[in-house]
């Protein structure tokens, strides 16, 4: 094992308990490989996983890939060397990480994918949302809104994260439902926020500038939505552009209260983290788990936003 890689596996920002020794982790240690620790969504996954690990008496180590797909592969390789008891993965590149998952399986280490499904992967289960279906749900909501509130026509720009498999699924589902809705909706540009708030802000500002007649905006994840909300506000478009997206934030709730953020898909990231740890604990005990553990979503609007305010105080 390379010394650099060993340090890489041990120098982890957030842990419940962390034990690195020369090639062997403490007994009953679980590893969570996440995308970044900027987005509230991923931090909430961490919180749910930490709580469940503590309750189960397990140690949890968390690796932050900082949006770098290859870093996730390296982390998994290091956790295999350290002989952790199970790995939870929030994948960036669902295909690129498959060899690392297979290596973990060969080493007898179960991997549970969370949030992003691994197509034909060797992970033992998936915990999370059917992103295409949820994209269809908000797409139908959007289409009905265009019909009922916008006279049946709209122009929509998209702030996405083109390197994110799941955010592309959310866009595909959205587009399919909008097309099926039968309204006159023109899709304008799709800009790449790269799952980074500052990048998403710049991309959204450029999108608005290039499309002054845009009437709606769809953001496929938390950084994209934060960037979109900030751009609409900074460019004085709150009276002209209705925003739809994923993953509530304090800023999104303020927009909902003001009436220009219209609908936001809210997941249960803490519930996903909790469910993944609980599933690995069951596997450790020899119990069977379902290959797909679905966590439901809610479309948050002005009518039900009060239920979620407490999460963002």
UniProtKB/TrEMBL annotation:
- The domain of life for this entry's organism is Bacteria
Which Gene Ontology terms cover its molecular function? carbohydrate binding
Matching PROSITE patterns, A to Z? Answer: PROKAR_LIPOPROTEIN
The Periplasmic binding protein domain sits at 36-287
Give UniProt keywords alphabetically.
Signal
One term under GO cellular component: cell envelope
Q: Where in the cell is it found?
A: Cell envelope
Which InterPro entries did the record assign?
Peripla_BP_I, SBP_2_dom
> Which family would the database say this protein is a member of?
Belongs to the bacterial solute-binding protein 2 family.
> What's the name of the protein?
Ribose transport system substrate-binding protein
**Source organism (scientific name):** Rhizobium multihospitium
